[in-house]
Write a structure and sequence with these properties.
Cytochrome p450; 5-stranded mixed sheet; 3-stranded antiparallel sheet; 16 helices; binds protoporphyrin IX containing FE
Length: about 425
């Protein structure tokens, strides 16, 4: 098949999928409606909830918006992220060897190796870096025009700079690293065309070459970063090079696009509730409460999936071996059984149980503490230095049912 034929076939398939989703959504299937990426998916989560704690969508997947059931599935070892025979479900990410795409025992081994570099104690080391990057970015933003796209001027920049330091990307590779990371970011949204898939794969290939180069450099001259931390494990056989490089590449993706949108969604919610913005301006120590409420109210990772490894009876239904469950974290975080008046953004609310924005169980986000720290420092600094910031026009959302965030968020600064 020529490239043009492949492109045409992919477009045709995408159209067929869209038509199918539209028909299913029009027929009353709320999950199909979510896959069509509406600007506001939250009413559709309520519709799923009204159908029960575990519901089978016309698209084939089981769905849950119940905080209790989602928690139970995420902690149940009879569910995995791969099929029971170890093969990958086709729509999962192309990082075969990243820990998020592996079940135990490989998952446990990789996670154990990466954990020390990201544990909360180690984060005290990164805190001054985050504060410095935040101040530099605000200096740059305030030195420019009165009206900016907050996503481009600030939110997209901070997590990339932090992860660049944490992973150990030398300064001369930074520009390339930033460019390739942004090209790879679209993988999280699902790639619609052959050209987009080819571009993302080309970015991965370039990134792989770059990381082999950096690993060689760190071997000769270890530094205080993740690559240097992991090299002894490669030398004594606990980790292969085929695993080290995907791990290094996965972190920018897992740790950037998510945190970008936590910062963006947090500021959007605050500016939409000016009295709560004023509370943060008056008292920056509210930043942790703001971040926790943003994660619950407008979670950056709206859903993730699990596959049953065996027939499982759950909530009076039978989930057969090989079937998938979409854990709708965006819906579970607004479960009225757990959070009072869940559609209200309220930084003063009683936090209640841990929300599911960072998942739960063995895949609980390894970067949760770092992400929280970045967003807390960023939002507190904006409140202190740009107290008059206001929304200055309509936002443009990122077209993804997984990553919820914005591409354009116009704000005026003064
Ligand atoms: C607001 C920011 C973030 C959000 C909402 C988020 C969300 C998530 C979620 C939902 C998962 C698990 C998905 C599943 O169970 O299938 C996950 C896993 C993961 N995240 Fe995050 N994440 C964020 C930031 C970060 C950062 C900053 C890093 C690293 C620097 C990171 C590294 C990881 C890793 C390594 C995993 C895989 C853990 C495993 O499979 O054991 N994340 N994240």
């Amino acid at each position: 098949m020529t490239e043009l034929e492949a492109e045409r076939r992919a477009r045709y398939q995408a159209t067929v999928v869209q038509d199918f989703l539209r028909t299913a959504a029009a027929g009353g299937d709320p999950y199909a409606g979510i896959l069509l990426v509406p600007d506001d998916p939250y009413p559709l989560y309520d519709e799923i909830r009204a159908r029960g704690t575990l519901d089978r969508s016309a698209v084939g997947a089981w769905t849950t918006t119940s905080h209790r059931v989602a928690n139970q599935i995420l902690r149940d070892r009879r569910f995995g992220v791969r099929r029971a025979d170890g093969t990958k479900a086709p729509e999962f990410m192309p990082f075969d060897n990243s820990m998020l795409g592996l079940d135990p025992p490989d998952h446990s081994r990789l996670r154990k190796l990466a954990t020390p570099s990201l544990n909360p104690r180690r984060l005290t080391h990164w805190q001054p870096h985050v504060e410095r990057f935040t101040d530099e970015l605000l200096d740059e933003m305030l030195a420019g025009r009165d009206r900016v796209n907050f996503m481009r001027s600030f939110a997209q920049q901070l997590p990339l700079r932090v992860i660049g330091d944490l992973v150990g990307i030398p300064p001369r590779h930074r520009r390339l690293f930033f460019r390739l990371s942004r090209r790879m970011a679209y993988l999280l949204d699902g790639v619609a065309t052959v050209a987009a898939a080819q571009d993302a794969m080309a970015a991965i290939t370039e990134m792989t070459v770059m990381f082999h180069d950096i690993v060689a450099e760190r071997r000769a001259d270890p530094q205080d970063d993740l690559i240097s931390d992991l090299l002894p494990a490669v030398d004594d056989g606990r980790l292969t090079m085929d695993e080290l490089v995907p791990l290094c590449m996965f972190l920018p993706l897992a740790g950037t696009e998510t945190t970008v949108n936590l910062i963006g969604n947090g500021l959007l919610a605050l500016l939409g509730h000016p009295e709560q913005w004023q509370m943060l301006v008056a008292d920056p120590s509210l930043a942790p409460a703001v971040v926790r409420e943003t994660l619950r109210f407008d979670t950056p990772v709206q859903q993730y999936r699990r596959i049953a490894h065996t027939d499982i009876e759950l909530e009076g239904r039978l989930v057969a071996a090989g079937e998938e469950v979409a854990i709708c974290a965006g819906g579970a975080n607004r479960d009225p059984e757990v959070y009072a008046d869940p559609g209200r953004f309220d930084i003063t609310r009683d936090p209640g149980p841990e929300n599911l924005s960072f998942s739960a169980g063995i895949h609980f986000c390894l970067g949760a503490a770092l992400a929280r720290m970045e967003a807390e420092i960023a939002l507190a600094a904006i409140a202190a230095r740009v107290p008059d910031i206001r929304r200055a026009g309509p936002v443009r959302r990122r077209g993804s049912f997984i990553v919820r965030g914005m591409l354009q968020f116009p704000v005026s600064l003064r």
